[in-house]
Specification:
six-stranded antiparallel sheet
């Protein structure tokens, strides 16, 4: 089921325009490790059998070559026991803002779905490296999404559907913020206003489950 769910998630991300070609990856936690999408394979050519199993020591335990970004998947699972799925995209607006190394401030109350009053942007580090993984862990501290400088976005969740929902919502927020910046710099919600949002979010959808 996890292999087919991963395949479907990648197909959905492509259909929605959040990933193209071979960009992006996703994973789901297993008992002793996780299953991650393969390296360098176009989404149109993927099948469930292409998904790769890795243990928490970073050892591949099935056929295939895992995504070059497997390290941050592994490290997120090690650092965040409540997280069971990771989605990484090169979506247009998140990546545009990541290339400017901009965090997303609380210009809109829905920023709260990422777990705090902003979506941080990590430091720039080379893709596929431990340094990038370390930077991602820092940017994801107490959050369910972050931007990767000059790279893209990570969204995480208690399950694959939640991680997907957050990725889609954050991309929408990035587009709204980018469009607002074409007119002016939007005024942000205050910390008191965001506290009210967090209180309302306790019973809102599946964001906190």
């Amino acid at each position: 089921m996890s292999r087919e769910s991963l395949l479907k998630s990648m197909q959905t991300l492509q259909e929605l325009g959040l990933n193209r070609g071979t960009s992006g990856n996703a994973s789901v936690r297993q008992d002793n490790g996780f299953i991650v999408t393969p390296s360098g394979l176009a989404i149109r050519d993927m099948t469930g059998t292409h998904m790769v199993e890795i243990n928490m020591q970073g050892e591949t335990t099935s056929a295939g070559k895992p995504s070059s970004e497997w390290r941050f998947h592994r490290d997120i699972y090690l650092a965040r026991p409540e997280i069971n799925a990771v989605v990484h995209t090169h979506s247009m607006f998140a990546t545009t803002l990541a290339c400017l190394q901009k965090e997303i401030p609380p210009f809109h109350y829905m920023i709260a779905i990422a777990g705090g009053s902003n979506v941080r942007c990590s430091e720039y580090k080379l893709f596929g490296t431990q340094a990038l993984s370390n930077a991602a862990i820092m940017a994801l501290r107490d959050r369910k999404a972050c931007l990767l400088a000059k790279h893209g976005m990570i969204a995480i969740g208690s399950n694959l559907q939640q991680a997907m929902d957050i990725a889609i919502e954050v991309e929408g927020l990035c587009e709204q913020y980018w469009r607002a910046l074409q007119i002016s710099t939007p005024e942000n919600l205050t910390s008191e206003e965001m506290d009210e949002v967090f209180e309302q979010f306790k019973d809102y959808g599946n964001w906190n489950k």
